Amino acid sequence: MKRLNKLYIVLVFLVCGDTLYSQTVTWQRQSSWDAVEIFGDHLLKVEQSGKWGLADFDGVEVIPCNYVCLTEIHEERFLVIGENNKLLSLGYPSGRVVHVNGEWYVDDVWPYFTNGLLAVRNSQNLWGYMDKSGKVVIKERYTNAFPFFFGFASVCENNEKGWHIINTKGNCLTVDGEKNFSFASSYTKIDERRPLAMVLISDKLYFIDINGNTTGDIVPDKGATVSGFESEKRFVCGEGNSRMEVEVGAVVEIVSITKGNVDYQCHKNSVETISFPQVRGIDIENDGTIKVGELVILPQFQEVVALTSERVLVKNDEKWSLLKFDLDESPIRVILNESLTQEICHNTPMFFQLIGKRENVRVYTVDEEGNMAFLDVDSTTGSFHALMNYLNKNEEAEFIIGLQTDDVVLAPKVFAEKVSLGDGFMVSGPEKVIVSKRKGKTSTEITIWNHSDQDAAPFDVSVDNGINMHFDGLPSHRFITIPVGKNYEISPLNDDVLKSIKVKISEIGMPEREYKVNIKFAIKTIDG
């Protein structure tokens, strides 16, 4: 950015208007949430003080932040969970919730519907399954119940051969006429093959398909003898002279199978989470600058996430808020008032004016170090004084003006206009100076007048004989005198000598100006 000169000036042209921003930005919700996730149909999952709820893209609460957990959506449902994993309500992607009757609890590892059913526990710690309407359709009778995958779930009635694999109607799957197992896993896709489960029958491990048939893809149909347990859910098996290990995860799905030098890939089921959308019309740069059409918001947030072409999430001071852009409105304009003079003389004030909605709007300019300086704005007229940023050789002045709306800092705009350069200074010297022949030099002064109606900004004066001086300003219609002749050598001639003194004045905010002062020196011979 060019150096800012702190000088008030006048722009001279007819009354004109210029739109500073073609869109506006407002807070939809400010400093509200500790964490935010995209959720459902134009909804946000939001956390406040350790509790969760839902809000729409306007920042309006759909579900208040009163709950321990709101699960991700799975099979068109989410769960509203309270203390100790108590199930309170079933939710829909639209944000609508239905209260669950009775006292039910869910598993904290997999609290989701699968195959249309949800494992739930009653107050006696017995598990059953609930459908999407909130009705328990498989009665609670199991000490353990795991999610349904591929139409089947593994359940346990007791620790002694009490494991079963049941279908969605609660009927047990049989394997070679046997339906009671020492252990049964849920179904998992292995190496992209058909879904397989693992069961233990008479200390032998079998893999079965969804029809209950044993498969020899990994071990022979006769099964593999279990030789031990390395951990609670890692089975060590022997098949002939080879060794095989099978690991089962927290939801009793097969996680890994290692047989000799072969590692079988097992694919766990997962919950589909909704990611932040790709939004057109909003450009978020790496430094955090937000661009929406002609509107530019300067970097001022820790994080920025686009929701729609009209809304973004922003994080500041570890809190998330919502900003909204009004793309079709132009409520704020800045105009330049007609001036009565056609000259720039020192710090003549130049007026801008805000037109339109001015609630919660502040105006700023930028200083020479890039810092914002807020300007006083008349609350009635919307007028304010602008600062000149630059005046080039073509006498075109530039002004940097920016807005802060609702504490959001918008990028400034540069205004440039042709102006007439006026000179508020006048430099003069004495009509005649008497020079002593004996001394061969003289001492004289020049006068610098401020003949304008405005005070001069700080300025420097340099004379061609090497004299340099600085002044902090000069009031209107006042003058200063500068001694300039002490180093001027005058040849001892009989005739008067006319000499020209060149004086340069560099005033802050104005181009350097040079003045020529002609002084007549008269030679007077003094004996001795």
Structure description:
The chain has no helices and 51 strands. It is an all-beta fold. The chain folds into 3 domains: 16-21 and 330-418, Immunoglobulin-like (Sandwich); 35-211, no CATH class; 425-524, Immunoglobulin-like. The strands form 12 sheets. The chain has an 8-stranded antiparallel β-barrel. The two termini are 64 Å apart. The model is unreliable at 1-17 (pLDDT under 50).
List key phrases describing it.
528 residues; mainly beta; Immunoglobulin-like; 3 domains; six-stranded antiparallel β-sheet; elongated
Main sheet attributes: strand count, strand direction, barrel closure: 8 strands, antiparallel, barrel
Q: List how many beta strands DSSP finds.
A: 51
Strand content: over 45%
What's the total helix number?
A: 0
- Mean of all residue-level pLDDT scores: 83
Helix percent reads under 10%
The dominant shape is: elongated
Secondary structure category: mainly beta
How many domains would you count in the coordinates? 3
Radius of gyration: 42 Å
Give the low-pLDDT segments: 1-17
Q: What is the straight-line distance between the termini?
A: 64 Å
Strand line-up of the largest beta sheet: 19-20-21-22-23-24-25-26
Q: Quaternary status of these chains?
A: single chain
Give a topology summary.
Blueprint: E1 16-18, E2 24-33, E3 35-39, E4 43-48, E5 51-56, E6 61-67, E7 69-70, E8 78-81, E9 87-91, E10 97-99, E11 105-106, E12 118-121, E13 127-130, E14 136-142, E15 144-145, E16 152-156, E17 163-167, E18 183-184, E19 188-190, E20 195-201, E21 204-208, E22 224-231, E23 234-239, E24 242-248, E25 254-259, E26 262-267, E27 283-284, E28 290-292, E29 295-297, E30 303-308, E31 311-316, E32 319-326, E33 332-336, E34 351-356, E35 361-366, E36 372-375, E37 383-385, E38 388-391, E39 396-405, E40 408-409, E41 413-418, E42 425-428, E43 432-436, E44 441-442, E45 445-450, E46 459-463, E47 468-471, E48 479-483, E49 488-489, E50 497-507, E51 513-524
